[in-house]
Automatic annotation (TrEMBL):
Residues 2-102 form the DUF8042 domain. It comes from Thalassorhabdus alkalitolerans. This is DUF8042 domain-containing protein. It comes from the Bacteria. InterPro entries: DUF8042.
């Protein structure tokens, strides 16, 4: 849970970097955070066991994994504001939904 809170704070930092025009710093921080989710993807048997018991949890895990994969190619977004929109419209909402699922499963 602490790690998820740290990621949430990091996403807010990425948002600030993008708003302030520090695109490279935002890209690097986002890439580092998204790399942290690689071991927890939908192909991980432990994740399947924990989150695969309920269909909605497994679906959300898969959706979040798709966003993580898209985020790894954030540098391909070139249009002004495109990175910020992707962060705020896709990454952060997907992360928030995933965090809620983790809290539910953890009984928090």
């Amino acid at each position: 849970m602490e790690w998820l809170n740290t990621v949430e704070e990091g996403l807010m930092s990425v948002s600030s970097f993008y708003r302030e025009g520090h695109t490279d710093s935002g890209d690097r921080l986002l890439a580092q955070m998204m790399e942290g989710f690689v071991p927890f993807d939908a192909s991980n048997m432990t994740m399947k066991y924990i989150f695969g018991r309920e269909e909605k949890h497994e679906e959300e895990l898969n959706r979040f994994q798709e966003v993580v994969e898209k985020a790894s190619a954030i540098e391909e977004l070139n249009e002004e504001g495109e990175r910020f929109r992707f962060l705020t419209k896709e990454i952060i909402p997907a992360f928030q939904r995933w965090k809620l699922i983790v809290w539910q499963v953890a009984g928090k």
